[in-house]
Amino acid sequence: MDVFALFSARVANAMHVLYPEVGADLLARIVVEPPRDAAHGDLSTNAAMVVAKPLGKNPRDIANALVEHFKHDSDVASVEVAGPGFINFRLEAPIWHQVLRAIAEQGADYGRSTLGGGAAVNIEYVSANPTGPMHVGHTRGAVFGDTLASLMAYSGYEVTREYYINDAGSQIDTLARSTMLRYREALGESIEIPSGFYPGDYLVPVGEALKAEFGDSLLGKPEAEALAIVRERVLVAMLELIKSDLALLGIHHDVFFSERQLHGPGGDIELTLAWLRDKGMIYEGRLEAPKGKTPEEWEDREQTLFRATDFGDDTDRALIKSDGSYTYFAADIAYHRNKFLRGFNHMINVLGADHSGYVKRLQAATKAVSLNAADMDVRICQLVRLLKNGEPFKMSKRSGDLVTLADVVEEVGADATRFMLMYRRNDASMDFDFALVKEQTKDNPVFYVQYAHARAYSIFKTAARELPELDFSAAALAGAEIERIVTPAELELVRVLAAWPRTVTAAAIAHEPHRIAFYVHELAAAFHSFWAKGKDDVQLRFVNHDDPKLTFARLALVDAVRQVIVNGLGILGVSAPTELS
């Protein structure tokens, strides 16, 4: 049950009754949301202000008409006009009791929606070059993308998690040459790794594997042939390393798309450029030098260009380099046409901070290859700064100069890593303090939330111990007299629970999964606050020896909190322990 959606429908119906001339486009702009100040009520709507100008009426007059209409609604305790025309509602207790019943009945599905209507959405995330283990810079995007995928699936979308393997560039040649050195090392040679090569020890096992498979036979082959063999073996090894690193955080992709399939005769790039040319989206022309480029740094020549500005980009884009090879952007266009032809009208790309300049060009490419039938959202994940007690933290590393994903998970665990990386907007830089995420205090957000879940279990244990003659099973709780939940403190907690479906929907529409982390932390805070009030006021304690029916009702409330925390942590990919050591 979504209280906000329920009253959105009632407000829309009231507008239709009072002002039938109001069209659907205006009704769609009306929102029902929590008031900025909780003291003003439970719900607030901007309905009167949205329709006032089109109707040529004073917004307060419209608001007063709506107030009169809602005075006859049995779920409304009071309704009043505020400011220039906002309408604030206070709801009767039974509406909150319906929320608790909905949570009990729907369980894991409370908050789940059909928003997506089964539409296919492709979420591409991580997509790091397959040249080594995941480092901390990749970790934030990995967690963000995976959480967003879970959120979208929970909201009714058919989600495909995709990893784009950048295995066609010069960095792969460098990787193969770096691995060849490790192969020589495995054969007993003394090696020196040149600048620009990959120095990490993670290539040592690949060299050993090549020795086991080929002995020293690769040394007798022409260099190009030997490197081709090494390239294939090391790409497989690096991809397995990446998959195992991601698995430490519970991250698994549905599709691993190789960039190499875009290249070559008859490949996606060739086919896509032919299609674009046929549609008049390609021309031969010249580009102005980018700002800051000197004549020596910029080659002014006629070249094959994509009409990116026709689709919202700042400049047209080159597709073919002076040596005849394709640009990276040509591959990007072909890749996104491939996605569209696979049936994806909705695409989300999660990229690192160094790719902020790619947003408009990727959106332009998607519009072009789909003839404006598909949409693209690019989410940029900003940098993470590693700290310990507020000071820069350098860890022991196994991969050259990088701090790896595995290093971070080993230090603080998967739960803390995932939650803390989601406890801030993706487009804001963040500090990750290893000391903080190990603390068992309210200052540690992940501990605070998990402790709330464990506390719920502890309350049930206390009830079973103090009232052993009573049955506190789920079946028994289903018959609890929820109507006994009436105190302001109890209803305040239920109001937070009632916000869960709206939070999920808003987060999915905005592609902002951090809202889920914020919400479960808010719910945990409300639950801990209510528990603390029971320490001071015996009437608010969960277990009441003199009133078993009230105890049942309170435990049903506790179980509702437990269930919603589980639902939220499930989207975040974080466990919900029943006790904390």
Average pLDDT figure: 93
Strand content: 5-15%
Cα(first) to Cα(last) distance is 35 Å
| Largest β-sheet summary | 5 strands, parallel
Shape: globular
What is the β-strand count? 15
Identify the quaternary structure here.
single chain
Strand order of the largest sheet: 7-6-5-11-12
Number of helices: 20
SSE-based structural type:
alpha/beta
Low-confidence stretches: none
Please tell me how large the radius of gyration is.
Answer: 29 Å
Q: Please, could you describe this protein's structure?
A:
By secondary structure, this protein is of the alpha/beta class. Helix content is 48%, strand content 12%. It contains 20 helices and 15 strands. The protein has helices at 3-18, 24-27, 47-55, 59-70, 93-106, 136-154, 170-186, 204-214, 223-247, 268-278, 328-341, 359-369, 405-412, 414-422, 445-466, 474-477, 488-498, 500-510, 514-536, 548-572, and strands spanning 32-33, 43-45, 76-82, 86-91, 120-124, 158-165, 255-258, 282-285, 303-306, 317-318, 346-352, 375-381, 384-388, 391-392, 430-433. Strands 7-6-5-11-12 form a 5-stranded parallel beta sheet, sandwiched between helices. It has a 4-stranded antiparallel beta sheet with strand order 1-2-4-3. Strand 3 (76-82) and strand 4 (86-91) form a beta hairpin. The chain is globular, with a radius of gyration of 29 Å. The protein starts with a helix and ends in a 9-residue tail after the last helix.
